[in-house]
Design brief:
Largest interface: A-B, 26 and 21 residues
Shape of chain B: globular
Number of domains of chain A: 2
CATH class of the largest domain in chain A: Alpha Beta
Order of helices and strands of chain B: EHEEEHEEHHHH
Helix content of chain B: 25-40%
Distance between the termini of chain B: 15 Å
Radius of gyration of chain B: 15 Å
Strand content of chain B: 15-25%
Number of strands of chain A: 15
CATH superfamily of chain B: Pyruvate-ferredoxin oxidoreductase, PFOR, domain III
Number of helices of chain A: 13
Distance between the termini of chain A: 51 Å
Radius of gyration of chain A: 21 Å
Largest sheet of chain A: 8 strands, mixed
Largest sheet of chain B: 6 strands, mixed
Strand order of the largest sheet of chain B: 2-3-1-4-5-6
Number of helices of chain B: 6
CATH superfamily of the largest domain in chain A: Thiamin diphosphate (ThDP)-binding fold, Pyr/PP domains
Oligomer: heterodimer
């Protein structure tokens, strides 16, 4: 990328990865730490030039372990800081994510999914839904997870990720995939649309003229840990009350609701349009927040719809969360594939038609 | 209305750039558009391609289409690879400087143009990609030379701006070469 974006007038044609990076810069990200991996390397590439130009911090970390722990360190001083990576390298950050949760630090992580497990391959996949939403770190914790489906949403939800991380003082992840990272679409940046969160109560700034502050993930007494975890989970409850976001399309009178997340939602919407043209009552539903998950809305839909179809580029991960929310009231079917391009519109339509026939 | 395009060729023929110019032109024409490259473990000298999907009034859905409306094939490998991916009634624009003029499918339209030779005659064989866009502009009737010029101007970095007049000439040459406008 030869252009120097930051703020721009009007629409620009831009890759998802660059859009995420530029949005992070506009959001006020002061520190970036990362280690390159396809398909998200453009984020680090953009940051390596832009952060220096703006007098902010860019560190090409020695490993993903270094990157996440550097981000934790920077966040403890109250600044906006982020790291970005992909699938197998997000695995390496799991310990750090668990620590960031117990440290209550607003660490922003961008995960651009590729094929797995193991080293897998560099093609788009949604196989890290569970890695993001459930996580692989130890202990009871949740992180905020936002899933964009277009390049414009990469921008909007990057802003939101920074805001929510700081508002709730907890790690937040933007979960994109290789398709979104590599594609170019027109998008608008505008200004960072959220208020700045005051971190002055807890951030580490040197204890001159005040009592010392400690940020650590260690509570030697069981009672203390109970108090702390109850506090954390109360925070998660507030999130579930106030921050759920989703995109719905023609669900009100739908007999079948097709659910997906991220870029898969694009073809689902087109498939729903095709079904509507055939006179079939079908709607589309796409969570934008994977945590907090729109459980209540899905429960509502399970009363109005007759069947639900979940489509993902994995072997059925969000499927489980949808089934939990539906709680057996209506059948929930699945259409998926492990890795590669999105499921074709015609194949989704065919699946929907087969569900209606039965 | 949604229309899809594949631009393909050897690495170095500028297929990704041509796709970006096309996508950017659609954007300046207030269309929704998505550009997606083939990326992966490609060999040096192997084929490169990108897909551009344009939609009028609605959001673009998929970029990995089973079938597309237009293919620009700048070499024979791409011609072979993407011929089956054209919709019935679709348009194949092939670089006949490198592709044999064999019409293997009867249910699509062909434009064989020696874009490599034509670009070389204009001054630089590297402009074959942009010249092909000129042909596409006329053959598809979906984008104007003016919008493509605006797009080129916005994409070319400062140190390459001096190449703009030559590339506009290439666009015009392609446009003039194309025998028919789309119905």
């Amino acid at each position: 990328m030869t252009t120097t974006l930051n703020k721009s007038e009007g629409k620009v044609l831009i890759k998802g990865n660059y859009a995420i990076a530029n949005a992070a810069v506009i959001a006020g990200c002061q520190c970036y730490f990362g280690y390159p991996i396809t398909p998200q390397s453009e984020i680090g590439e953009f940051m390596s030039g832009k952060m220096q130009e703006l007098g902010r911090a860019y560190v090409s970390a020695e490993s993903e372990l270094g990157a996440i722990n550097m981000t934790i360190g920077a966040c403890s001083t109250g600044v906006k800081a982020m790291t970005s990576s992909s699938s197998c390298a997000i695995s390496l950050m799991q310990e750090g994510i668990s620590y960031a949760c117990s440290d209550e630090l607003p660490v922003v992580i961008v995960s651009v999914m590729r094929g797995g497990p193991g080293l897998g391959n560099i093609y788009p996949s949604q196989g890290d839904y569970e890695q993001a939403v459930i996580g692989g770190g130890n202990g009871d914790y949740r992180i905020i997870v936002l899933a964009p489906g277009t390049v414009q949403e990469c921008v909007d939800l990057t802003y939101k990720t920074f805001y929510l991380a700081h508002k709730y003082r907890m790690p937040a992840m933007l979960l994109a995939d290789g398709l979104l990272g590599q594609m170019m679409e027109p998008c608008l940046f505008g200004d960072y649309p959220y208020p700045e969160v005051d971190n002055s109560e807890w951030m580490l700034t040197g204890a001159k003229n005040r009592h010392r502050r400690v940020i650590r993930s260690y509570a030697p007494l069981a009672e203390d840990q109970c108090v702390f975890l109850n506090k954390l989970f109360n925070k998660y409850k507030v999130l579930e009350e106030n921050e759920v976001m989703y995109d719905e399309y023609m669900v009100d009178d739908a007999d079948i609701v097709v659910m997906s997340f991220g870029s898969m939602g694009r073809n689902v919407k087109s498939a729903v349009k095709a079904c509507r043209e055939k006179g079939l009552k079908v709607g589309a539903f796409r969570p934008l927040t994977l945590f907090p998950f729109p459980n209540r809305k899905i429960e509502e839909l399970s009363h109005s719809a007759k069947k639900i179809l979940v489509t993902e580029i994995n072997m059925g991960q969000m499927l489980r969360d949808v089934r939990l929310a539906v709680n057996g009231r209506i059948p929930v079917e699945f259409l998926g594939k492990p890795v590669g391009s999105m499921i074709d519109i015609e194949d989704i339509v065919k699946k929907i038609e087969s569900m209606i026939e039965v | 209305m949604e229309k899809s395009f594949i631009i393909a060729g050897f690495g170095g023929q500028g297929v990704l750039l041509a796709g970006e110019v096309l996508a950017s032109a659609f954007m300046s024409d207030d269309k929704n558009v998505t550009w997606y490259p083939s990326y992966g473990a490609e060999m040096r000298g192997g084929t490169v391609n990108c897909q551009v999907v344009m939609a009028d009034g609605e959001e673009v859905s998929s970029v990995n289409k089973k079938e597309v409306d237009f293919v620009i094939a700048l070499n024979d490998l791409s011609f072979e690879k993407f011929l089956p991916k054209l919709k019935k009634g679709g348009m194949m624009i092939a670089n006949s400087s490198l592709v044999k003029e064999i019409k293997k499918r009867a249910d699509i339209n062909y434009i064989f143009a020696p874009v490599g030779k034509m670009a070389a005659e204009l001054g630089n064989v590297k402009m074959a990609n942009i010249l092909s866009l000129g042909i596409l502009a006329k053959a598809s009737n979906l984008i104007s030379i003016e919008k493509l010029t605006v797009a080129l101007d916005s994409i070319l970095p400062e140190h390459r701006k001096h190449l703009l007049p030559m590339n506009i000439k290439a666009l015009e040459t392609g446009f003039a070469f194309c025998p028919v406008a789309a119905v």
